[in-house]
């Protein structure tokens, strides 16, 4: 292999710089920390926040309090701790976009009332009775305890706190005291109280449903529960029929569309000016420190950003084509094209509003797209079709999404986008808690160095894909860093051979070796050779399988967990989803 002295920093780029700050740790990388945890949680300490600020130039989602309104502001205590450790730290606040919680919806509705706007305009509403899937849970015994029944003309049932029952849910009461109880295993339709959706009215399971008279019911004693939704065994999913204004919905409020997350929370209406103004007010509260003078966060991470755009009826879907707000479009494709345009326009308006409020023209609004296929396949028309606006994005599962060789094209797409100016947050997660297999840790670290770019910021996270807090929950000193990131690999080197794109004389990643079981990819740095093996099978059970010995064509020194590299090798053994960082000299 031939190497030149030219490195990646010497190339001419037309894209904007990620930001003009130096990483706060000794890492060569831009890094970020991302968590939902609050400082008031027992496991979260000021030292954990200090650790996050010391390691990362961007910290996302940390919070100190959860006010009764259920909306978390940019509290002074957390911001002060972060800035004391790292004055240039960038604070990004996390907030869901379309899967708004019950308490957040209350905040938005209160804003509408105080501002003279119509609450109805916050949401989308079904025009007809609509069957939707609201949960990815494949457990047909999806149960929760009931705390009481109000005996009056209409049966009203109060569920345990935080239980969210969507309108139109089919509820089956089970485990009642006495097998001969008249409503044991009886099914009803739920209609939540708009003021508290833990309190529901029971309707007969007919069309149209009629309120149930509970005055003749015997006392309900002991432990009893409900199984929510219809579980459709053939499709392996739960379904809910949400009443529409053209069906049996008593009023428009009961016809509000539902999202796929969290038991079917209300679906926002991104095309509504009322929604946009209310959400901008919410985010203004969220990013503003409760201090004098006020200071502001540097951006917002919008989670579940693309969820409303799901068109697959058999997957998680909200069936937006059945809503009053979008049903007038001539076909389903036109419905979702309009919806995507509204999502992009609303996020752009939000970014401009927050930039004006904070006085920060570089204020960032970052959609969180979960995984590579969301960007380049399932929601490509949204993300790829709107690069000029959605130019700053997050891939939440950047490690677990790349455990098969066929996903290497996704890495190429990411790199192409970064070269064109798009900025990425890329989170690599182990899917397990510590200790994690060393070769798999090096696989994730290797992915980071294959994709390293001025327009990329990385997070190495010990923990499951959906568990940001890791284990122990919230201890960022245990879950949000890998010591090997502190070893400088230097600059990427230009090499004479072809890269994965088929171009010569670049510093990008390339194919190092391949066999029937997988392919090894490499990237050269001043101080190291980075190798990653993507196998043809995925999953934690396959890590390390089908190992192969690779000659290196020279002497290298494998980087150890304690950042030492003393043992000389001229070959390395890599199995499925294994990696190696091979230093060019002992350290």
At a glance:
The protein is built from ten helices and 25 strands.
Q: Averaging pLDDT over every residue, what do you get?
A: 83
Provide the CATH architecture of the largest domain: Alpha-Beta Barrel
In total, the number of domains comes to 3
Give the distance, in angstroms, between the N- and C-terminal Cα atoms: 23 Å
Walkthrough of the structure:
The protein has helices at residues 46-55, 76-85, 102-115, 273-287, 332-358, 372-378, 380-383, 408-419, 438-451, 476-479; strands spanning 3-7, 32-34, 58-60, 90-96, 130-132, 143-150, 156-159, 170-174, 187-193, 196-204, 225-228, 230-232, 237-242, 299-303, 364-367, 392-395, 423-429, 456-461, 493-495, 510-515, 518-524, 528-535, 548-558, 569-574, 578-583. It has three domains: 25-111 and 269-486, Alpha-Beta Barrel (TIM Barrel), CATH 3.20.20.80; 126-255, Beta Barrel (Elongation Factor Tu (Ef-tu), domain 3); 493-583, Immunoglobulin-like, CATH 2.60.40. A hairpin with a 4-residue loop joins β12 and β13 (237-242). The protein has ten helices and 25 strands. The longest helix is centred in the middle third of the chain and has 27 residues, at 332-358. α1 crosses α2 (76-85), α3 (102-115) crosses α4 (273-287) and α4 runs parallel beside α5 (332-358). Strands 6-7-10-9-8-11 form a six-stranded antiparallel β-barrel. A six-stranded antiparallel sheet has the order 20-21-22-25-23-24. A five-stranded parallel sheet has the order 2-3-4-14-15, covered by helices on one side. Mean pLDDT is 83; it is low at 1-25. The two termini are 23 Å apart. It has 587 residues and is an alpha+beta fold.
């Amino acid at each position: 292999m031939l190497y030149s002295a030219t490195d990646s920093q010497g190339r001419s780029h037309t894209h904007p710089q990620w930001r003009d700050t130096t990483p706060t740790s000794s890492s060569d990388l831009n890094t970020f920390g991302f968590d939902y945890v609050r400082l008031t949680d027992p496991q979260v300490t000021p030292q954990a926040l200090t650790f996050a600020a010391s390691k990362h130039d961007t910290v996302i989602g940390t919070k100190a309090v959860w006010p009764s309104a259920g909306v978390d502001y940019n509290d002074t205590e957390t911001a002060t701790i972060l800035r004391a450790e790292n004055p240039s730290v960038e604070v990004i606040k996390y907030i869901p976009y379309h899967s708004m919680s019950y308490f957040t919806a209350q905040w938005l509705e209160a804003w509408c009332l105080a501002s003279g706007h119509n609450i109805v305009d916050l949401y989308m509403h079904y025009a007809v009775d609509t069957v939707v899937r609201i949960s990815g849970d494949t457990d047909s015994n999806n149960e929760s305890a009931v705390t009481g029944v109000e005996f009056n003309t209409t049966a009203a049932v109060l569920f345990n706190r935080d239980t969210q029952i969507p309108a139109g849910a089919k509820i089956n009461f089970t485990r009642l005291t006495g097998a001969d109880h008249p409503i044991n295993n009886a099914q009803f339709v739920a209609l939540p109280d708009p003021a508290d959706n833990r309190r529901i009215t029971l309707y007969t399971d007919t069309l149209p449903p009629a309120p149930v008279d509970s005055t003749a019911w015997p006392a309900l004693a002991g432990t009893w529960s409900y199984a929510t939704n219809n579980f459709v065994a053939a499709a392996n999913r739960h379904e809910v029929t949400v009443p529409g204004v053209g069906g049996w919905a008593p009023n428009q409020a009961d016809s509000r569309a539902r999202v796929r997350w969290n038991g079917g929370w209300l679906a926002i209406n991104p095309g509504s000016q009322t929604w946009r103004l209310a959400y901008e007010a919410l985010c203004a509260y969220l990013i503003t420190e409760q201090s004098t003078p006020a200071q502001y966060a540097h951006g917002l991470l919008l989670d579940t950003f693309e969820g409303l755009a799901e068109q697959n009826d058999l997957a998680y879907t909200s069936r937006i084509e059945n809503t009053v707000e979008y049903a007038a479009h001539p076909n389903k494709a036109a419905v979702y094209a309009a919806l995507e345009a509204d999502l992009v326009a609303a996020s752009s308006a939000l970014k401009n509003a927050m930039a004006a409020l904070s006085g920060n023209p570089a204020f960032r609004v970052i959609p969180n797209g979960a995984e590579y296929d969301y960007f380049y396949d399932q929601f490509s028309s949204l993300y790829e079709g709107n690069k000029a606006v959605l130019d700053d994005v997050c891939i939440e599962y950047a490690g677990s999404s790349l455990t098969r060789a066929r996903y290497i094209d996704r890495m190429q797409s990411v790199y192409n986008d970064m070269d064109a100016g798009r900025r990425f947050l890329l989170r690599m997660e182990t899917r397990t808690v510590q200790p994690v297999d060393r070769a798999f840790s090096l696989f994730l670290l290797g992915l980071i160095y294959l994709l390293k770019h001025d327009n990329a910021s990385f997070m190495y996270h010990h923990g499951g894909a959906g568990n940001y807090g890791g284990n122990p929950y919230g201890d960022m000193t245990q879950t949000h860093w890998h010591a090997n990131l502190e070893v400088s690999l230097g600059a990427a080197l230009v090499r004479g051979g072809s890269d994965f794109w088929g171009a010569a004389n670049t510093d990008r990643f390339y194919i190092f070796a391949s066999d029937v079981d997988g392919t090894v990819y490499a990237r050269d740095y001043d101080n190291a050779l980075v190798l990653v093996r993507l196998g043809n099978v995925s999953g934690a059970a396959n890590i390390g399988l089908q190992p192969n010995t690779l000659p290196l064509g020279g002497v290298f020194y494998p980087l150890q967990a304690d950042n030492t590299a003393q043992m000389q090798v001229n070959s390395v053994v890599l199995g499925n989803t294994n990696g190696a960082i091979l230093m060019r000299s002992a350290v």
